[in-house]
């Protein structure tokens, strides 16, 4: 009987092992133990998203200090484990089928497991980077250039070159990304050193030659930088520190935060867009600084994420009476772009509507009548539809069939468009009035059916 039970137990174990083996092929698994006393028990697993780390999973240590993560990896790439007050670089290259087992100590970690993928190479370089991170820690102000520069020249730079020679796994995606990561880690930490407060500072002649040759290489042409944990800080550190360490006889620029100069060093459009989004997210502006900076940046901030950020940043600038109106640019029925600024010099009566909106359609006859009565005056009757993109032809046909006058435009993203977001429009129709300078008179004007509207417009025309 005992023999039979043992056979059943063995079969059960084998069956479960095979099931797990098949299951792990579609997942990556990390198990580990924190082998020192840790006050905060939370462990975060972070993924690289647009050059920064984003937490994708969280767990807590059990009573033995152990933890684990299992997750599907849509695209192989770098992930990090974050533990409060642990300065080790716990970075790993995850892909489905990996089984990593970690023993984490205060001074480092040991990596084990049957399916490590490329993580022995990653861990070897992690240890080198951790030495730089320790000196660059803002809490470690007693360490200065006398400790950092010898480490950089005598250890890190040679190890970086040696590591890049080693990276030849046959996995083209990994090899390219890991080599880029080695160079980025090296330069980013070198740049970051100068931005950390110190008790003593180097003179120009104390800097290694490395600092005087870094600008000779073309920087920021590869959008894969955004697949690295320090992609954004790399661009920021380089842009800010570039002007601090100069060749002899060069003058330091008066305006270190000149945005035109900063972004001129970033060639790839995607990187430029992300850099500027990060810049505006973290920078506090005074006076008219924001408007000046945004005038430089706006042509490069073309992604949907950047457009949303601009709307959020500018809500306070384009909502109150007397402030400039929101700067939009939308297509007319012929597909031509028309900007808000093109109406400067005329009063603007803005109607925000849609073809599916009954109350909007009821206002159309009143609007057409008012347009006819004020024809020839310095006033633009501007109608902007928030119909969905899929209904663009329906909108064009409606404009033609109803013989709508004035200027007819359509937003670029219905309820998510900048105009709608800026004025926090929750329902339509919505009417607004802007003066000849493009400044807000009211963002909640009376409807065309109101007898008061004509008098209000005439008063603005003839103050």
From TrEMBL:
<dbReference type="InterPro" id="IPR050553">
    <property type="entry name" value="Thioredoxin_ResA/DsbE_sf"/>
</dbReference>
<keyword id="KW-0676">Redox-active center</keyword>
<keyword id="KW-0201">Cytochrome c-type biogenesis</keyword>
<dbReference type="Pfam" id="PF08534">
    <property type="entry name" value="Redoxin"/>
</dbReference>
<dbReference type="InterPro" id="IPR036249">
    <property type="entry name" value="Thioredoxin-like_sf"/>
</dbReference>
<feature type="domain" description="Thioredoxin">
    <location>
        <begin position="319"/>
        <end position="463"/>
    </location>
</feature>
<keyword id="KW-0732">Signal</keyword>
<keyword id="KW-1015">Disulfide bond</keyword>
<feature type="signal peptide">
    <location>
        <begin position="1"/>
        <end position="21"/>
    </location>
</feature>
<protein>
    <submittedName>
        <fullName>AhpC/TSA family protein</fullName>
    </submittedName>
</protein>
<dbReference type="InterPro" id="IPR013766">
    <property type="entry name" value="Thioredoxin_domain"/>
</dbReference>
<dbReference type="InterPro" id="IPR013740">
    <property type="entry name" value="Redoxin"/>
</dbReference>
């Amino acid at each position: 009987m005992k023999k039979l039970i043992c056979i059943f137990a063995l079969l059960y174990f084998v069956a479960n092992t095979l099931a797990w083996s098949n299951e792990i092929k579609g997942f990556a698994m990390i198990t580990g133990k924190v082998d020192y006393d840790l006050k905060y028990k939370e462990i975060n697993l972070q993924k690289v998203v647009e050059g920064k780390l984003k937490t994708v999973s969280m767990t807590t240590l059990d009573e033995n200090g152990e933890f684990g993560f299992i997750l599907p990896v849509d695209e192989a790439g770098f992930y990090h484990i974050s533990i409060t007050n642990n300065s080790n670089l716990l970075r790993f290259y995850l892909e489905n089928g990996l089984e990593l087992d970690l023993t984490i100590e205060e001074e480092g970690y040991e990596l084990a497991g049957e399916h490590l993928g490329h993580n022995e190479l990653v861990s070897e370089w992690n240890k080198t980077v951790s030495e730089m991170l320790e000196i660059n820690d803002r809490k470690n102000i007693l360490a200065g250039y006398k400790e950092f520069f010898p480490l950089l020249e005598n250890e890190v730079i040679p190890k970086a070159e040696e590591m890049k020679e080693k990276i030849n796994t046959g996995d083209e995606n990994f090899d390219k990304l890991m080599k880029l990561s080695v160079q980025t880690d090296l330069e980013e930490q070198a740049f970051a050193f100068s931005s950390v407060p110190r008790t003593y500072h180097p003179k120009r002649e104390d800097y290694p030659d490395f600092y005087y040759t870094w600008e000779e290489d073309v920087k920021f042409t590869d959008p894969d930088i955004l697949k690295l944990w320090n992609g954004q800080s790399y661009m920021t550190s380089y842009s800010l520190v570039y002007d601090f360490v100069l060749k002899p006889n060069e003058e330091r620029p008066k305006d270190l935060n000149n945005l035109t100069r900063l972004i001129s060093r970033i060639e790839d459009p995607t990187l430029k867009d992300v850099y500027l989004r990060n810049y505006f997210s973290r920078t506090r502006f005074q006076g008219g600084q924001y408007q000046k900076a945004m005038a430089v940046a706006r042509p490069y901030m073309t992604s949907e994420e950047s457009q949303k950020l601009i709307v959020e940043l500018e809500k306070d600038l384009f909502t109150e009476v007397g402030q400039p109106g929101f700067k939009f640019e939308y297509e007319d029925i012929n597909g031509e772009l028309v900007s808000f600024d093109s109406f400067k010099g005329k009063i603007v009566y803005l109607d925000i509507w849609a073809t599916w909106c009954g109350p909007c359609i009821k206002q159309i006859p009143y609007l057409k009548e008012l347009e006819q009565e004020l024809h020839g005056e310095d006033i633009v009757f501007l109608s902007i539809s928030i119909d969905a993109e899929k209904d663009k032809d329906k909108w064009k046909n409606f404009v033609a069939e109803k013989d709508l006058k004035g200027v007819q435009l359509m937003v670029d993203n219905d309820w998510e468009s900048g105009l709608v977001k800026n004025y926090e429009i929750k329902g339509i129709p919505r009417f607004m009035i802007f003066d000849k300078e493009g400044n807000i008179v009211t963002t909640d004007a009376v409807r065309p059916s109101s007898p008061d509207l004509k008098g209000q417009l005439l008063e603005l025309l003839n103050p």
